[in-house]
Specification:
By secondary structure, the protein is mainly alpha-helical. The protein has 8 helices and no strands. The protein is elongated, with a radius of gyration of 24 Å.
């Protein structure tokens, strides 16, 4: 929307107007961030209705992490977490896995020591927050497409005077965002980011910072 304002409204391109819009956009962005966390959490639960990938990866029956590596993780967690023990029963192991992941998250908050975990955590959170905002993103993109189509038609019939190139550029921007929302921001994206975060988080068991 801001890009289209710059394209369609010459006054917006002035420095004073740009500063005002930047301040307003920053405030709106913070509100969207808070809102996205609510909708994003709901979207994440839909992607992972049972367990989060990091927890599920610790189940004996799960094959995302090879058995040799998982045994090494089990040994580490048994040593560092009081009461942790491995069970072949998934129902019993779920509680242990949840406890282990919670402990690992608390121990790996220092991004300077665990940069990969921090990066994958950001990617994971960003992906499911985007998925939560997907319906609104599609609606806004559709509104933009319709608005630009109307402006193009009005300009073509000489009812209004506006730069045709700007309208076409705005239309292409909205189309691009619509395609991104539909084909890129998907459950498979969240699932993939979640698994990568799980692998990074559990690999902390091999980190010298925790041993």
């Amino acid at each position: 929307m801001i890009l289209e304002l710059y394209l369609l409204v010459p006054e917006v391109q002035k420095l004073s107007t740009t500063i005002i819009i930047a301040i307003v956009a920053y405030g709106i962005a913070n509100v969207i961030i808070v809102f996205s966390r609510i909708s994003g959490t709901k979207a994440m639960k839909k992607c992972f209705p049972g367990m989060l990938p990091a927890q599920e990866s610790l189940l004996v029956s799960n094959n995302y992490i090879d058995s040799y590596t998982k045994q090494r993780y089990y040994a580490f967690l048994t040593k560092h977490i009081e009461g942790f023990n491995v069970s072949e029963d998934d129902k019993e192991m779920k509680l242990m896995a949840a406890t282990a992941v919670t402990w690992l998250i608390a121990q790996t908050r220092d991004s300077s020591k665990f940069p990969l975990i921090a990066e994958e955590n950001i990617n994971f959170g960003f992906s499911y927050n985007l998925l939560g905002l997907k319906p609104y993103g599609i609606i806004i993109a559709m509104i933009g497409l319709i608005t630009n189509a109307i402006l193009f038609l009005l300009n073509y019939k000489e009812i209004i005077t506006i730069q045709q190139q700007s309208v076409l550029a705005g239309f292409m921007i909205d189309l691009l965002f619509l395609l991104l929302w539909i084909f890129i921001v998907t459950k498979p994206l969240v699932n993939d980011c979640g698994k990568k975060y799980a692998r990074a988080l559990l690999s902390a068991c091999d980190s010298p910072h925790l041993n």
